[in-house]
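Hey, can you fold this one?
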Amino acid sequence: MQAPLRNFLPLSLLLIGAATAAPIRKETIAEGFHDPMSISVAADGDVYFVEREGKMFRVRPSTGGVFEIGDLPVSALRSTDPKSDSAVEDGLQGIALDPNFAKNQRVFLYYSVPDKLIDRLSRFQLKDGKLDISSELILIDVQTQRHDRICHHGGSVQFGPDGLLYLSVGDNTNPFASDGYAPIDDRPDRMPWDAQRSAGNTNDLRGKILRIRPTEKGYEIPPGNLFRKSTDKTRPEIFVMGCRNPFRISIDSKNSTLYWGEVGPDAANASDKGPAGHDEVNQAKAAGNFGWPFLIANNKPYPIVDFTTGKPGRMTDPAAPKNTGIRNTGLIDLPPGQSAFIWYPYADSPEFPAMGKGGRNAMAGPVFYFSPKRKYNILPKEDDHTLLTYDWIRGKIWKAKLGTGEKLEKLEVLDEGNRHPMDMEMAADGSIWLLDYGSEWWFNKNGFLRRILPDSANHSPEIAIEPVAGKDRTFSVKSATDAEKDPIVVTWWLTTGITEKKLGTGSTITVPAGEGSEIRAVASDGKSTNGIARISLTTEKAAPELTLNLSGKAPDYVFGNTIDFKVISGTAPDAAQTTVSARYIPATGHDAGGPQFSPEITALVTANQCLACHQVDHTSVGPAYLNVSLKYRDRPDALDYLKNKVKTGGNGAWGEVPMPPQIALKDTDADTILRAILGLSDGISQSKGSLNGKITLPSKPATAGEGGAWEFTAEAPGFTTAKFRVPAK
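Sure. Predicted structure:
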């Protein structure tokens, strides 16, 4: 079954205004999460979410309780082996609660199986509030590969209003060897670099959005999927094909229209190998083929490139695309290509100027319908039937007003300044839950859960608590205020495993000895969401410690001298991942604990989305700025060289992951930021890859005066850093 090509409104209508909508308010409910991936909101208001490395949590917003209720064994990249070429994006990807969850306690999870090359959709059941792993009913196994930095899992799981379950699956392809264009490498030994075998293959579940109807013992194929059951060389579970990385999906609660954000390829400009890369927000009112790896955006075609010669060949016909790849096990003649609903490149989008420019990682959020009976309406009545879409890199949320026939009428920015929004879902009361992934690409410890409310909503009370000096396990309210000056009632709650108990009310509480892991004070004014303050009663188990021994004595530690070092631990770290550093600290009376940007530079890099991929002194998806400084600081043309790299993008200097061109960055801002980056390494030197070696202390910085100190550190993944200081001479 093939869906017709979509009709679009005239571009002149799409260009209407880009004004920011009415203000909204964001409340952080809980934080400190490790790579949180996906949420699902229960009818009673509790929020369930999963972390990439396998943990499952329940959050009770009314009390702030956060409960770890499961730990599913999964294949995942872990901090103990951060440079692994396998399992780069594996993990626990998606969660959906059964429509009848309140009664049956069933939950659907999509995860990477640890001992098989499979990504799996399974149904589990909660037992006594905890994930019962033995209850697993396997529904769909998706064959996958994990070597050679293959990535793109998709992994979004959602139920529609009709009880059908949707699962997004990425193309499971290495995107780093096709210059940002279509990975359609037909050479015999290039399987990981060929998306014709997956997204373009009608007989493969990868690069698709699947649609099934779960049953008591498995699932059924609903009518209306892309291929009828028993059609040769096809899979009947496929609803949408031709996807690169359909990362977050959303289903209209009234008409079951499917939306998803499609993370696109990296080419900055069009060439004879194909169009510039675009991200997409897609709409499917019926089953269809959305083109990848043969089409992108509004059906912009790719030529079939001969990867042996590098020369482009036959151009794809959007109305009749063909898959002639040597690894294609499905149909050669594919359904006609469907245009994206919204599409945007790194540069300004001529069709959708409200999207802006810069890095991109498209996501689809809920569809808003105005209801006077609901407690909250994020948007006004005139925005009834509006899709909320967002971008992980740009940190923005847009409202896409839908008109007759669900055509796009208007596109406006709703909110910006978010960090890395990972998943978004609307609760029954009309509030929106936003799960933020954290500041890094992997190994975050600062993800958080945030509730979005209309700014007109009554403000939550603000509360702070503190331990009572001299009284063990006794806590008191430090402050409690309410913007509307309503009376506040403070209730104390104690987390005990996967549950909690109420301890009482008032300004002070004593926690029973040996009980609980977290104490919380909940401030209520009876009109708004509650204010919450928390103090942990436990400490995390410390990682094994490193010891750093240096030759010589303090008088030897002068600028330019070379000294011997030895790094030791009860369990030896990986020498290749060990870094020994020396840092001069001027005698200023204070120290920030490491190189850092000034507040002005921090504001500038934040505004330009630089911190989406980089951090000051540790590696994220891109290199640490300190490492960039150390590598290029002695190069005479460093500023011009780095400025060109920033503007044009590229890959290879720091690994396979490409840096997109930062065309939105002003020249003056680029100069300011790059000078600040190059200055980060003043007074710092490093030695990498050895447990027993030498380090040359840095040259004397221009700002050095009398006194000061040397700080020596040894770092390795999975170990507590060794750090000490000695006076500088």
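The domain at 547-727 is CATH 1.10.760.10 (Cytochrome Bc1 Complex; Chain D, domain 2). Let me know if you want another pass with a different chain boundary.
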